Every structure is written in C-alpha cells, then in structure tokens.
Amino acid sequence: MADGKPRSLSPGPGGRLGTLLDDAVWGLRAYGFIVAMWVRSTMAYRASFLIMLAANFATAGLDFAAIMIMFAQVDALGGFTLPEVAFLYGTSCVAFGLSDLLLGTAERVGRRVRDGTMDVLLTRPVPVLSQLAADRFALRRLGRVIQGSLVLGWSLTRLEVDWTPGRVALLASMVLCGAAIFGCLFVVGGAFQFWAQDASEVQNAFTYGGTTLLQYPPTVFGKDLVRGVTFVVPLAFVNWLPALRLLGRDDPLGLPDWLDLAAPAVALLCCAVTGLVWRAGLRAYRSTGS
Amino acid sequence: MDDADGAFIDVRDLTKTFTVRRRSGLLRRTATRVHAVDGISFVLRRGEMTGFIGPNGAGKSTTVKMLTGILTPTSGRLRVAGVDPWRERTRLVRRIGVVFGQRTTLWWDLPLRDSYGLVRRMYRIPRARFEENLARCVELLELGDLLDVPVRQLSLGQRMRGDITAALLHDPDVLYLDEPTIGLDIVSKARVRQFLLTLNAERGTTVLLTTHDLSDIEQLCERVVVIDHGRLMYDGPLAGLHEVGRGERTLVVDLERELPPIEGIPGARTVRTEGPRQWLAFPASASAAPLVSRLAAEYPLVDLSIREPDIEDVIARMYAG
Ligand SMILES: Nc1ncnc2c1ncn2[C@@H]1O[C@H](COP(=O)(O)OP(=O)(O)OP(=O)(O)O)[C@@H](O)[C@H]1O
Ligand SMILES: [Mg+2]
C-alpha cells in the first residue's frame, strides 16, 4: 500500500514554502478573475450601478457631515482642528473602505455554512477565502473609498505638514497597513463563524464600531478604553499612532516613538495570525446535516 | 496515483463523529455525540460504477463529504488517488467531480455559460478541451437552449443537468453523485442515467452514486455498498443483495374458482388472495419448478407467473433486520 507518495500531486521543487507561495499566487489570480466576472456582470446594468455607487458615497458622507456639524459649534475637538480630524477620518475611511471593498464578503461564512453553500466552495480547486471574498464583488463599495479620499485630500491641503519622503511613506503605510488590519478583522470574524455561526454580530461591533471610534481623536475617549483598543484590537495602528506623529502631536499614552513605525510589522503579524485562524476554522468546519 | 493493488478510493475504518450541543433547560447545554459514520471500509477500483445506499441519516452524505475533502474524518484512513483528500484538497478536487442533488454548485445569478466560464478558469481547463467537453454535455443533456438562462430561472431538472455538466468539464477521474435524480421526472431521469452510462463506458470515469431511487441503482450499478447507522451492511454485486436480504420470489397463480388459501406446499406460503388469484412467496434461492408441478397436481390451475423479488422490499427488510 503506497502511503501518500503521490506522484502527480506532490509539491513542486520549491518544497513546502514553494507550495505555499504557489497557492497564494493562485489564490490571488483566482480572486482576480472571479472579481472580473462579477464586475462585468454588474456593468451590464450600468445605470443601477451608478445609482448604488452614489448612494454608497452619500451614506459614507453622512459620517463626515456629523463631524462638520460639531465643528460648527466648537473650533477644536479634544484639541484637534477640523483639518486634523478630517485627516484622521480620511485615512481610516480609505483604509476601511479598501478592506471592505476587497474582503468585506469574507464575513459571510455563517450564512454560507447555514445554507450549505460552503460545501460547494470546498469542492473547487481555489482557496475558499478567494472564492468567498470575490463572491458578488460589489464595486459600489468604492463609494466609501472615494468619499474618504476626497476628505483626506482636502485635509492635506489644509494641514501644515512638511511632506518629506519619509512622511509620505508613513502616510501610505498607514492607509495600506490599516486596510490590511481591517481585512484581517473581516477574515478572523469570518473564521470564528465556523465555530459559532452567529458570530457575525460580534464582529460587526469590532469593525464598524472600530472605524467610528477611530474617526474621533483618541483623547475624547477615556484612557483605559483607548489602551484597550490599542492592545486588544490592533486597530489603533491603523490610524492614530502614525497620525499623531505626522501631525507632530504627543501621544497621550506615552508609548515609545518606534511603535508608530511598527504598523507594517503589526500588519504582517496580523496577516500571519489570521492565516492560522482561518485554517483552523476550515478544519473545524462540520458542514450541515442535509 | 493509484495504490499498488489498483484501489482508486481506499477507505479503512472511517469514522466521523459530530458533537451536537443542545440547550437543555435555561442555561444548561448538553453535548451528545452522533456517530454519523462508524467504521466503514471499502475499496473502489478505477472505472467502477457503485451504488451507495442506505436509509435517511445513514451517513452517506457525510462519507461523500469526507471523500471530497470537505470534512475531516474523526479517525480512520482515507485515500483517493493515493492522497488524503482533506490535506490535498485544492489539488485533488481537480480530479473529482461532485454533484449535490440538494443544492447547486453553479452561481445562482449567472447564466450557465458564465458559470462554465468560471469553472474553466478555476480548473484551468485548456480551451479546446473545454469547448469539446461542453459541446458533448450540451448535446447529450440537451442544454442548448438553456446556456444563456440565469441558474435561478432553471427548473430543477434543467439545473441538475447544468450541474452535472459543470462537474464534468474538467474530465474528472471520479464523479460523486449525491442524489442526482431527486425530484426529476421520468424523462429527465432516463436522460441522466443514459448520460452516466455513456460517460462510464467511454471515459472510464469512476462513479459513486447515492440515491433513494433504487431503479437508478438497478440500471446503473453492478455493485452496491449499503450502510445503515454509519455501519457497512453489505458490499457486493447487486444480485447478491437478494440473498442477504432474504429476498423472496412470488408465484402468482390463477385458479379455476375461488378457493381457500393454498396450504401444504413445502417452502411456500400464501401471502395474499383475491378471488381466484393467489400469491405465494418462496425463497429467491429455491427453484420454482418442483413448486409448480406440485401445485398443478393438487389444484385446478388456469395460469401462473413468477415475480422476481423487488429490490426495494429487499432493502427495506435489510434496514429493518
Ligand atoms: N454537520 C452536522 N452536524 C451534526 N450532525 C450531522 C451533521 N451532518 C450530518 N449529521 C448527522 O449525521 C448522520 C448522518 O447524516 P448524513 O447526512 O450523512 O446521512 P445520509 O445518509 O446522507 O441521509 P439522507 O439519505 O437523509 O441524505 C445524521 O444522523 C445527521 O443528523
Ligand atoms: Mg444525504
């Protein structure tokens, strides 16, 4: 009895790491063509797509309208001026918007498990996460990204920051690492639903609640709460630690300087942990009885 | 590839236990264990067409899900084409086709044609191969008019044919069918069966078929694997089921006139009377000739016929026993 030793199915010469890399590349490619399919089919109804995009843009704009209204009463919120708040808002909004656009559907695990379509995803030679995240890809979610970019762009014209290459890189890393961390939250939230199928609610509190929290400057909230958010959920790396540095502010927690540069490391760590949690979730998957 | 002794699918002492938590009282939750699959072993060779049957809740779907790599076994050994399906899932599923009668593997909102396009890219099927396979399935399953219809608008029978096509575009070595004829009318059923026979004959595709429609099995499979309560009850040729299930043949006799139930014929008993007609059951393994001559000698016979045992009865008796 040949135990294992598959010939045609064995990993390539790259060994385990090579296989892992191949899988990742294949997963991304598959994600790409599934998304392309959905975008094509959305574009068949161009008018309705544009309406949805506009609606998405407007809903996202309401958040910022609330902040503007507050500033009509006061000049500064927790010591931050309107352009500074707009900066915080814009970066977190773009980061969240990007992750929601690219990975937002990954949290539909619970529904997939309940209606049995998770089984179907598992019968295809494409990583489940790629299929899940690309499924019914909704380009209209670009609305939030556009709105956030506009606010961010406006704030950049008003802020007096000397844009050295280092600062530009920090801004880019803020947005990208932020998107990555939010994306991880979506995926981890999805993975937990393999264990508890109604975890979807809990996770919404994290991601959606999380962004609202980050759109206001940290000193508005109690110190303990902020500390909790910083360490329990690495959300703060998304936005305010690097932002404070960019804005030349003191960090209310007195954390060492190097920590705000740690965002890429934290994002990578999050991705690795997320990968493991996702895999464990898949392993725990038990399908349905019918 | 295959194991040394030619086993394409090799299942040894396979078990799957689900822990089900139920609320029992206000705060208490009790965990019960369901042994969905409880130590099954069988071997399928390349090109075999096997029926996989058992009553509701026997563990058929659970077994198929483990063979596909959807579920991890609780214990036991499982090899398909020489590899562990769960570990090597994304690679192995390229060689597997699956049809779940209960739900579609197609994209609900997409026309069949677009679904197939996605399947082509997911399985990296060379375009020429794809076109050829699609054309073949479209012809044999009569899908021509349906290719541009969104899946959600298809009838059950149309959708099932669409699903079977999707499962075969990448030339799988093995096809798992979990209740593929559920809810189909006679014409659709016949079409699907004929298609499977052709597929098996021409491509040598290994087929494992789960169904509650025993005529599917009678027409398609030489071999059956019967399970109940997660345990293997029978594995062998279809014909052998009769003996295991204590199958009985029935002699239908028409007498000249209405008589009391026939008695005193060794090895046979009267199971039903209706006017001058009577039904006598006798073991499927016994010969009918001595019985008939004895009857003719003692009773005023007008006509008689023999009915072969009904496979459904046989299996029902097996499940009960
Ligand atoms: N995901 C699950 N969680 C808990 N129990 C399950 C699960 N899947 C199956 N079971 C249980 O395992 C047993 C076997 O189920 P399975 O679906 O394999 O039966 P089956 O032979 O396919 O039945 P049917 O003919 O009704 O389709 C049943 O008792 C079922 O309740
Ligand atoms: Mg079943």
Characterize the structure shown.
The complex is a heterodimer of chains A (290) and B (321). Chain A has one domain. Chain A has helices at 15-43, 46-73, 82-103, 109-115, 117-122, 128-134, 142-158, 165-195, 200-214, 223-232, 240-247, 263-284. Chain A is globular, with a radius of gyration of 21 Å. In chain A, helix 2 packs antiparallel against helix 3 (82-103), helix 3 runs antiparallel to helix 7 (142-158) and helix 8 (165-195) runs antiparallel to helix 9 (200-214). Chain A is built from twelve helices and no strands. Chain A is mostly helical. In chain B, strand 11 (269-274) and strand 12 form a beta hairpin. In chain B, the strands form three sheets. In chain B, strands 5-6-7-3-8-9 form a six-stranded mixed beta sheet, sandwiched between helices. A four-stranded antiparallel beta sheet of chain B has the order 11-12-10-13, with no helix packed on it. Helix content of chain B is 31%, strand content 31%. The radius of gyration of chain B is 24 Å and the shape is globular. Chain B is α/β, with parallel strands linked by helices and 321 residues long. The model of chain B has no long low-confidence stretch (mean pLDDT 87). Chain A binds chain B through residues 1-2, 4-9, 23, 30, 33-34, 37, 41, 115-117, 119-120, 122-127, 136, 283, 285-287, 290, and chain B through 1, 3-5, 10, 18, 61-62, 65, 68-72, 81-84, 88-94, 96, 98, 100, 102-105, 109-110, 114, 117-118, 121-123. Adenosine-5'-triphosphate sits between chains B (18, 20, 34, 36, 54, 56-62) and A (286-289).
Total DSSP helices of chain A: 12
Low-pLDDT runs of chain A: 1-13
Name the overall outline of chain B.
Answer: globular
Most strands sheet of chain B: 6 strands, mixed
> Which structural class matches the secondary elements of chain B?
alpha/beta
Number of strands of chain A: 0
